[in-house]
Amino acid sequence: xNNKRLKSGLLLAALFTTPAFAGYNITLDNDATLSFGGYxxxxxxxxxxxxxxxxxxxxxxxxxxxxxxxxxxIRESRFNIGYQQDDFKGVxxxxxxDDQQPKGTSETVTGGHSLRxxxxxxxxxxxxxxxTWSTFMPLxxxxxxxxxxxxxxxxxxxxQSQIRYTDGGLELALENPSTQSGESQYIPDVVARYTVKQDxxxxxxxxxxxxxxxxxxxxxxxxxxxxxNVHGKIKAYGQDDLRFSYNGGAAGRYVSPGxxxxxxANDKGEIHDVQAYTVAYRHFWNKDYRSxxxxxxxxxxxxxxxxxxxxxxxxxSINKQLTIGAEVGNYKTESGDSNYLQIxxxxxx
Length: 349
Known about the structure:
The chain is mainly beta. 5% of the residues lie in helices and 53% in strands. It has one helix and 18 strands. It has one helix at residues 2-17, and strands spanning 23-27, 33-51, 63-73, 78-85, 88-95, 116-124, 127-133, 159-167, 170-175, 189-198, 201-212, 223-235, 241-249, 274-284, 289-300, 305-317, 322-332, 337-348. A hairpin with a 4-residue loop joins strand 17 (322-332) and strand 18 (337-348). It is globular, with a radius of gyration of 20 Å.
């Protein structure tokens, strides 16, 4: 009985932390399957301090003294549609983060939010084509957090169009080279990752090569850029786990989304080096309750960026689909810091 309860708790934890590309399946006449999935999530979030309110921290530095703001939203909610026949699979997924939060749509009449495309890809055997998580992104190391995505401040966090080939633990990809700086690029970003999975957990190594052109001649990134990360998820005491990641090199927009989204570079055209790491420990108190303590930190010496995020939560699985929880934390930059409290409820389809 205890093993069954524990397995149920682990299933609920997995549903809370990973994309739900399944849910309800319909078998079609041609032996194909059409699936519908996703989840509903409602968040109550209070932020107070000297960094402006956000629905989740992204590594930016929006100094706003004496901030004190509370919001309720459902933006993280999402739905997806999948199609599978033999070795062919296709997925579409959306959430509601397209309105530029925290302002977004007026709340005067309704809290309407715009759809944002998250995933749109097809997969056939070893090949995947379309928009999904970058091959450089270490999904396994992301903490189970109520603040959407956890310590964004120190994570690789990118979804983009790509062509990916997978053979066992090896993944090779050509990915979208576009930048926020408006520069025209013509050589795709190249990503390689190798993952080792054993009884003790998993660890992976990834490399990123970008060949950028300063087409506007305005001092932007120019030439070949290199970045790397090491990440993993290790089994600990009982059903606990330890997750970690380290990012280094000229990652630019790939790491800490709000820190160097425009791929700022030095006078030689070299993107400023980033040093970023995350660590998270998840503990199961029993079959219903679990907690995660996580921390992430990022520095870019050339710009003076020095930012970090710490969070601690308590989650309770009500049943197979429903999880509720609370999280407290602090987000700190070189200009100030803000504390936050978030209470969430999530129902997985």
